Amino acid sequence: MRAVNLLPKDVSDGRKRPPLPVLAGCVGAVLVTALLAVLFLSASSSVAKQRRALLDAQAQFAALPTPPAPSAVAAQLPKQRQTRVAALATALGERVAWDRLLREVSQVVPSDVWLVTLNAVSPTLAPAPAPGTAPTGFVISGCTYSQESVARFLARLDVVPDLTGMTLGKSQAAGGSAGSTGTDGSCPPGMFSFSLVGSVRGGGASS
Question: Which of 82, 85, 156, 176 could form a disulfide linkage to 180, CB 3.0–4.6 angstroms apart?
C-alpha cells in the first residue's frame, strides 16, 4: 500500500521567514536601545561622582574652624586711620610756604626801599588781633626817601597772595645826628622809617 501526504505543502515546509527589511529594523532598534542604555548609565555615574564631590566639599567646609571675632583694637583701626588722615590734611592745608612768601616779598620791594626787619608768624600761632588794632602776624620795617615810596611798597604787598590785611603801621622822618649810619636799626637822617603790618594767609587760603 502506497503512503499519501494529506497535509498542505506550506505547513509541511515550516513557517515562512520575515522579510529582510523587517529584520534590519528590529536589529537597529535593539542597537539604539542598547546605546541609550549605555549613555544613561554613564550619565548616572557622572552625576553620582559630582554629587559625592559636592558632599565632600560641604563636609570640609563645615569642618573649618570658625574665625575669631575681631578685637576692639582692630575694629577701631579704620576710624583712627580716618582721624589721622584728616589731621594730616588739616596740617598740610595750614602749612605756610615760607620760602615762597619771602621770594614774593623780595620781588615787590621797590628799588628805593631798604628793609630793616621782617617778622612773620604762622596764622595758626599768631594771636587774633583785638578789635580796633592792627594784626601783627606779618610786620616789616624799613627805610626810604619819600612817603610815596612807602605807599608804593604797601600797594605792592597787597597783591602778594600769601599776605592779607596789609596796612600802614607808621611812617615818619628818621631822627638822629648827622653822622648816624643806622647800624642800630634806625634809618639815617633825611630818610623815612616805616612799618607795615598784616597777616599771613593759611596754606589753603593762599592757593
Answer: 176
Cα 192–194–197 angle (5° rounding)?
170
Quote the CA–CA distance of 113 and 202 in Å, as a whole number.
27
pLDDT tens per residue, range 50-95:
888 888 888 888 888 877 777 777 777 788 888 887 776 666 666 7
The C-alpha cell at 130 is: 583785638
- What's the topology of domain 98-200? Alpha-Beta Plaits (3.30.70)
- Cα–Cα distance between 191 and 173 in angstroms, integer? 6
Nearest residue to 204 (alpha-carbon basis) of 151, 162, 156: 162
Residue 20 neighbours by CB under 8 Å, 6+ apart: none
Asked if residues 61 and 160 have their Cβ atoms less than 8 Å apart, the reply is no
Contact criterion met (CB below 8 Å) for 124 and 109: no
For the chain, which residues make up each domain, given as ranges? 18-60, 98-200
